[in-house]
């Protein structure tokens, strides 16, 4: 755990200034840039190993990158499960901002697979970490087919996982992107991609963690005399004189008596009838807006007797691990720059110094790799 405060030791600082400085202290609970020694910090799980379904991680900067020395961990086998985690000193985010951030690059054209990470609490057997291991927060992109291209933000509350009810589209290209989840002590949150806010709101409204504060009064009944007819027949409208005399059908004036018609044998010839264009059906008064319209009846909202507020709704009292647990049909997802801290500005800066610094060079490298790939395809055919 690092305290990134300005050093105030041996300096005489007025008390007021000192308190200002302490406010700007970033507490970093975990930061992983995947430099040398990363393997001592991360534990590969044995999950799915006995079925030969556990995928290998590749320690690499990938096929295209902005800095070949800046490595991360990449899924390297198709149709495999992946589970890896790292431990940090246990902490609670009570009264603190929680920032959870990492970068992810799908070098494969990802058609179905996750790119999310998890925060876990309490004691976890990291060697057994897998799909069934309970987690506190799951956050990051998920892609499957055309329908699922979203950022997950699943919060565990009261031993139940709750999905974010808002739609947050994720990035779908083959470049690195930084995903940031921020949880504030006032129970609000922000989701950022590449340091740009994509969603913000409240834990109360955007997840169903607690029962709703208010509900429709189940006892309420629509009053007998409630007028919910928006339109009524115009009482002023009168049937025009002679309306009922208009016949439904009229003789076809264009019809001709056939040449071979024999009045004696066939009877007197009468023209066949056709529908009368003047005939408009039975008369109905026109409709007008009902001046007494009261709108659609709705039951009044009342306080939900089952609602109990939880001022610690946002609190995870013993966060202790960060992990990746994924199923991948096509491998090639590369994770890097994992950060758990309490300081939004620090996270922003880290994203700029890593992803931000390298993104243009990475894009150029990708464009070149793509051009080479297309050229090779064209050469073959
Ligand atoms: C690891 O990644 C590098 C860079 O993309 C690649 O050349 C190498 O073949 C990969 N190794 C494995 C075992 O997948
Ligand atoms: C927690 O879950 C239990 C069991 O589902 C339920 O009875 C209880 O009301 C829940 N508490 C809250 C605060 O949601």
TrEMBL record:
Task: Identify the stretch(es) annotated as Disordered.
Answer: 214-286
Going by the UniProt record, its keywords in alphabetical order are: Calcium, Chaperone, Disulfide bond, Endoplasmic reticulum, Lectin, Metal-binding, Repeat, Signal, Zinc
Signal peptide stretch: 1-26
Q: Identify the main location.
A: endoplasmic reticulum
**Which cysteine pairs make disulfide bonds?**
112-144
Tell me which InterPro entries the record gives.
Answer: Calret/calnex (IPR001580), Calret/calnex_CS (IPR018124), Calreticulin (IPR009169), Calreticulin/calnexin_P_dom_sf (IPR009033), ConA-like_dom_sf (IPR013320)
The question of whether S-adenosyl-L-methionine is a record keyword is answered with no
An annotated GO cellular component: endoplasmic reticulum lumen
Q: Which domain of life is it from?
A: Eukaryota
**What is its subcellular localisation?**
Endoplasmic reticulum lumen
The terms under GO molecular function for this entry are: calcium ion binding; carbohydrate binding; unfolded protein binding
The entry marks the following residues as binding an alpha-D-glucoside, namely 116, 118, 135, 142, 325
Biological role stated in the UniProt entry: Molecular calcium-binding chaperone promoting folding, oligomeric assembly and quality control in the ER via the calreticulin/calnexin cycle. This lectin may interact transiently with almost all of the monoglucosylated glycoproteins that are synthesized in the ER.
UniProt similarity note: Belongs to the calreticulin family.
State what protein this is by name. Calreticulin
Traced from the root, the source organism's taxonomic lineage reads: Eukaryota, Viridiplantae, Streptophyta, Embryophyta, Tracheophyta
């Amino acid at each position: 755990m690092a305290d990134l405060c300005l050093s105030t030791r041996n300096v005489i600082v007025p008390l007021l200034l000192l308190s200002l400085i302490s406010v700007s202290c970033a507490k970093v609970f975990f930061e992983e840039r995947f430099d040398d020694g990363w393997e001592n910090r991360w534990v590969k799980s044995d999950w799915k190993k006995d079925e030969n379904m556990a995928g290998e991680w590749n320690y690499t900067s990938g096929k295209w990158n902005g800095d070949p020395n800046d490595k991360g961990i990449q899924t390297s086998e198709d149709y495999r499960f992946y589970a890896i985690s790292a431990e940090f000193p246990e902490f609670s985010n009570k009264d603190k901002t929680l920032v959870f951030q990492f970068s992810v690059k799908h070098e494969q054209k990802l058609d179905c697979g996750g790119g999310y990470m998890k925060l876990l609490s309490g004691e976890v057997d990291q060697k057994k970490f897998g799909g069934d291991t309970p987690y506190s927060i799951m956050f990051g992109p998920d892609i499957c087919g055309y329908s699922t291209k979203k950022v997950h933000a699943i919060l565990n509350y009261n031993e139940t996982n709750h999905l974010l009810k808002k739609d947050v589209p994720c990035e779908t290209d083959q470049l690195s992107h930084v995903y940031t989840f921020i949880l504030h002590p006032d129970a609000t949150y922000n989701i950022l991609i590449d340091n740009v806010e994509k969603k913000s709101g409240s834990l109360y409204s955007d997840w169903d963690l607690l029962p709703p504060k208010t509900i429709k009064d189940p006892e309420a009944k629509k009053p007998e005399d409630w007028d919910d007819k928006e339109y009524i027949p115009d009482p002023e409208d009168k049937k025009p004189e002679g309306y009922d005399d208009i016949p439904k059908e009229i003789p076809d004036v264009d019809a001709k008596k056939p040449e071979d018609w024999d009045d004696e044998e066939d009877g007197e010839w009468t023209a066949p009838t056709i529908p009368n264009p003047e005939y408009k059906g039975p008369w109905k008064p026109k409709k007008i807006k009902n001046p007494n319209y009261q709108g659609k009846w709705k039951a009044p909202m009342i306080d939900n007797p089952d609602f109990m507020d939880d001022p610690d709704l946002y609190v995870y009292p013993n966060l202790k691990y960060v992990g990746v647990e994924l199923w991948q049909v096509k491998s090639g997802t590369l994770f890097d720059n994992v950060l758990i801290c309490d300081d939004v500005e620090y996270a922003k800066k880290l994203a700029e110094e890593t992803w931000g610094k390298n993104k243009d060079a990475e894009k150029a490298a990708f464009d070149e790799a793509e051009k080479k790939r297309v050229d090779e395809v064209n050469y073959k055919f």
